[in-house]
Structures are given as C-alpha cells and as structure tokens.
TrEMBL record:
Name by which UniProt lists this protein: S9 family peptidase
Gene Ontology MF terms in the entry: serine-type endopeptidase activity
UniProt xrefs under PANTHER family: DIPEPTIDYL PEPTIDASE FAMILY MEMBER 6, SERINE PEPTIDASE S9 FAMILY MEMBER
Database matches in InterPro entries: 6-blade_b-propeller_TolB-like, AB_hydrolase_fold, Peptidase_S9_cat
Residue ranges of every copy of the Peptidase S9 prolyl oligopeptidase catalytic domain listed in the record: 458-672
Organism of this sequence: Pelomonas aquatica
Keyword Ribonucleoprotein: no
Gene3D superfamilies tied to this protein: alpha/beta hydrolase, TolB, C-terminal domain
Ranges in a coiled coil: none
Taxonomic superkingdom: Bacteria
Keywords annotated in UniProt: Hydrolase
Amino acid sequence: MSLFNHFSRSAMYSTMARRDVMALAGLAAWPARWVSAEDLAADPAAYFARPQMTGAAFSPDGKRLAMRSRSKEGRAMLSVLDLDTLTPFPLYAAESDDVLSFFWVNNERLAFTLGDLDAPQADVDAGPGLFAVNRDGKGLRQLVERQRLWVKNGSDQRNLLPWNTMPLSSQPSQQGPEIWAFRVEAYDGKDVDYLKLLSLNTATGFAREVDAPLHSQQWWVDREGRLRLVQTRHGNQATLQWRADEAAPWKTLKAFDPYVDDGNLIVQGIGVDGQVYVATRRGSDKLSMWTLDPATGELSARPLAQSPQFDVRGQLVQRQDKVLGLRFTIDAEVTQWLDADMQALQQQIDKVLPRTVNRLSVPWSGGEPWVLIEAFADVQPSVYYLFNRSTRKFTKLGAARPDIDARHQAAMDMHWIKSRDGRDFPAWVSMPKGSAGKKLPTLVLVHGGPWVKNTAWAWDAEVQYLNALGYAVLQPQFRGTQGLGSAWEGAARKQWGQAMQDDVADATRWAIAQSIADPGRIAIMGASYGGYATLMGLARDADLYRCGVAWVGVTDLDLLYGAHWSDSSDAFKQFGMPTLVGDRVKDAAMLKANSPIHAAGKIRQPLLLAYGEKDVRVPIEHGKAMRRALAEAGNTQVDWVSYPKEGHGWVEPATKADFWGRVARFLSRNLAASSA
C-alpha cells in the first residue's frame, strides 16, 4: 500500500478548479449573492469575515452529528443533527463566547470548551474552561473554571477543577462518562515542566490522577482507553515509553533530544489493532509511515505510505474494528486508504466532487450508512456534505464561507526551483483570476516559523485578498520549511539571513526569469520570521524588491536571547536556539551581521512596519528599535502602525480590516506601473 508515485494533487485539482463550478443534483443551492473581487478589494473585512460552519463529528454510534456553526449573534455555537430526521437541535450558544473545541464523550454526552475568537491578546482574561452536556441539552455541567469568567449553569463552583486543566485531543473508547485531561502543575509563563494526567468523569466532575512517568507530556491510549504509551521531556532529554498493561513497568523505546532530533521515530497513534503507528526516516531523507510492534520494537517489513518528495506523517483514520487509513498532507491533503471499501467509496465521492480534496469521516461503530464529507480546494473554503451509502443521496450541511465564489478565486500551483547551491525546493504561485500571468506586480510572501510545515494546497484569505487586488503571490518554501525532508530542514541551521535568505531571492529571480513577475514591481512581505526575512531581503537584495511589508517581525537576533519578557522558554534558548539560530556567545558576530537592526543603513525602500503591543513572542521592542534605526539611517519612507491590544498576529476584526486596508494602499502607492 505504499505511495510508489508522488500524488501531485495540487496540479490535478488546480487545473480542474479553473473550470466553472457545476451544481450537483440533489444538493442545496449556492447563495444568491457572492462577494465579488471588487467588493473584496474595496473592503478587506469581507475577505476576513468569520466563517459560518467550522466542523462536525459523528456520535460514536453514527446516529447523530455534532456541528459547530455561527449563530445569529455571530458566535460559534454547538448543535446536534438527528440523522434519522435531519433535524438540528441547538445545544449551546452564548452571546459573548464561542465554542472552541468539542467532542463526543459517548453516544449521549458531549464536552466542549469556550473562548472569544474575536478577542485580541489584551482582552483574553479567561481560560477555555471545560463543559459537558447531554445531546438533548440537559445535564449541562461546568467542569473546569475559567478564571474570571463563569458560565452560570447551576453547578457547584467550589468543585470545579482549576482553569489550567485541559482535555486531551484523543479520547478513549467513548462508552462511559470519563474523558482524559491533564493539568499543568509547573509553568513559568514560558515552558511547561510537570503535567498531571487525569481521568475526568463528565457527569460528576470528579477527577482522579493517572499514574504516568515523570515529565510526561504526550499520552496515547489503546482501543479500551488504557494508557499504553507516553512521551516525556525535561530540558533537552526526551523519552518514548511503553507499558504492556497496568501491572507492567514502563519500558523505554527511544531516548532523544527533542530540539534537534531528526525524526527517527514520531508516534502518530495506537491503532485498534494494537500496533503503534509511527513516522520514521529509517535511513531515508523523507519520513514515511510504518507500524511498530511495541513488544519487540520491530518495524513493519514495508512502509504503509511514503513519498519521494515529501515527508509523510499520517493521522490514523479508524473504526472500532479496524484501521481504515492514513491521512496526511504532502503538497495537498491525501488519504491513503488501507481498507478496500473505503478506497472504493473515496473514488465514488471524488467522481461526484472532482475539483476538491474530499475528506471522508465515518462513525466509530461502523453500523450506520452515513459519511461526512469536508470538501475544499485552493479556490474553495470548506463545504460540508452528508452522504448516505444506502440511498446514495447527498445533503449539503453548510459551508465555511458560503459568500466565496470559487469561480472568482485564484488557483495555486506548485513549482520546483533550483537553489544556488543546487538543491530543489518548491514555491507556490497564485495569480489574479483572469490575468495573462505575465509581467505581473508580484508579492513575495515569506512564511513565519520558520520551522513550520510546507504550505498546502488550500484556500487562504490573505493570499486570495492579495490576488484580488491584482498581484501575483509567490510563496517560497525556503530551507528550514518542514515536510520536505531532513536535509532541507537541517540545511537551515545557523542560516538566518544567509542561505535561507538566498532561497527567497532565488525564488524571486526564478519568477522574473519565467516572466511571471515584473522585475520593477516586486514587494517582499511576511510576519514573524517572514517579517525578519522581509527586512533582510530589502537590505541584502535591494535590486529585487521595490518595497516591503513586515509585521510582528524579528529585527535583532541577540534580542531573541535577551528579551526576558518574551515567551521563548529558557530551555529553548539553552538547547534549541544555539543549534538552530546560533550560539549567543560563540556566534555573536554572525548574529549581529544577520540582524536587520544592524543593516538599517542599507534599507532605502518604502516599508510598512506593524506590531502588536501585547506581543510576547516578538515583543514590540523589536519594532521600535528598528524604527529608530531606520530613522537614524535617513529612511523617511516608513509607515508605522501598532495595535494596542494585539499580540503575535491579528485577531480583532477591526485590526484585520485596518491592517489589510493599509497594505492595499501601501502596495498601490509603491508598486504602481509608473514607478517601474
């Protein structure tokens, strides 16, 4: 069942997506009015509006479907759909809170957390809490406090668990009222040390501590809900430990350095077959999926899924009686079915919905005919369908952004580029809908992180907004980007502002050579590390970029170590950053040479700088120091904006509208054809 050939889903889907979207017989009609490109260009708030439907999950027996969607008050609410009658029942909605996460405890009860999705950093004054409720709305109980914000439901507030108690994402057998949770017992504001694992009864609110090795931070349970596998971390020491049963001692399967480990064994879950599913390189540059027999420590004879170009880390798709498949993202999301019936079902659905990635979910019990489909593409935000395998009928449940017309969105295409040191790496290109695709004003959008997963083929509000303004968008997956193999990720060590920056410039020159980009109208932009790369790009490659937009960007590499008020942990500064970025003492000259604040005199282009005043990841001191340095160097073309309540990124709708409106005006002013 290996992937012998790379699934280049993006090329196939994006070609299809350029055609008009055809209506499907038997499905709900599309909205009567779409948001046009002209509307979006005039009002960025239209693009960054809150989504309507944002998730659904079957009850274990498959008779009901929990759904999260937007209420009439504009908040994310929770409802339950009876699948026999297709009648929805509103389960929980509030005027001042959003349902954040939700999951079924068993067939009769659900658990959920709350928060404010529009609250900027300064206004976040409560934890997510934890609540449980019966599917008919009865038995609502608050289980975890929310610090200074409470939901009045009649429960005894004195018996609530502390606000720092969180539910685990993976739950046991979904039969009784218990769920897994953990409590942070030692936290210094930057890093977690001691976590207490709990079994929490959602009916009584009682929690008991579960025995686990010291410094455990990840846990996996078997199909009966018994703890079997844990990962510990303390400083730069981590272990993976297995226990055959409750009476057996814990056995170490692997010890490693969590900051620099190259991914020799990454647990993806315990299957209902008792095997541990892992991603490992096993002598290869790329991660692939295998099973591990925990009793012997032996890997399967062959990989279950692999790709010659991308790392494969598969999420288990299971039913109570078998592992059905592995779901992972390479250039686009792929489900590698291990079950022949599910493979046939996928092919059947893909014929009806040929222009989207179609993520299929089935009930845990396997006894009901229902299939949940989440369909999405580069030009299409998620749309949710229900399919009945017996009647072969589709029902449209809702959409994340029903106001977005796929026919008017820009397609994404992946291209492979050769770096100046001879390495191949990908870059995504999106062009304005209807453009000729030649000599376009171009935005080089550098992702943050920088150690994050390769950008995937999916609808992106920021990219689509920039395309709607008339710009081509180039997204280079420079070295250090994860998901492209160990060599590409490792090649970024101590290369901030150097080889990592060369990749961005090489991608830009490639776009010019392909006649995609107008060489006189190119801007570089990005947030966090992308903001850092924007500033370094303006300083190092002044011939390429006419202007830049940097928000929440790093400006001083030494300040990453010295800013005691940032949320970077002391352990990361001690064990991770010296290897990944550079040693503060031994590499001091290198860090200084590759800090934008010390290259301010080389930046002469117009620049838009934006920061959140409550940012604890890249504190605003980075921006203030850069602004002063630019002024002292004589650069008077700096637009500056700071948002008093925001942190490391924009949350408040008004902030998003203001910032992207500024971006539109800045780019229009500095990338006009007459300025070329």
